Amino acid sequence: MREYEDKCRTYTPASSIRQRSNPPIEGRSTRSVYPWSRPTVRRRSTALRARAKREARSMQDVARQGVRDYVQNHSKADLLDRVLDDELPRHAEALERLGQ
């Protein structure tokens, strides 16, 4: 029990510990390794917040709807491409005659 109490007294939450970054590698930029930057993320968040406010919805709802729309639109295009790839060769002769 004593050991547990000692640990509790010396416990430091992770949020208060300053994370040390790895030293930069020679010849490499010290800029972020992420393909996005903080200003870009900030602009996107601001745009999302403004859109949500205009629509009187939560940011999360607006983002979900955007993902749903993206998946739905791309799924339809993929399905149409697959059907055309399968069906056009089968009916190529008939389509040629119609074109004459």
Give the SSE layout.
Blueprint: H1 2-10, H2 38-55, H3 59-90, H4 92-99
Helix pairs in contact: 2-3
Characterization of the model:
- The chain has a domain of 41 residues.
- The chain has four helices and no strands.
- The chain is mostly helical.
- It is elongated.
Key attributes of the depicted protein:
100 residues; single chain; 4 helices; mainly alpha
What does this entry show, briefly?
By secondary structure, this protein is an all-alpha fold. The protein has a domain at 60-100.
Number of strands: 0
Shape: elongated
- Strand-residue fraction? under 5%
Question: Which H/E pattern describes the elements?
Answer: HHHH
* Cα end-to-end separation: 92 Å
Mean pLDDT: 76
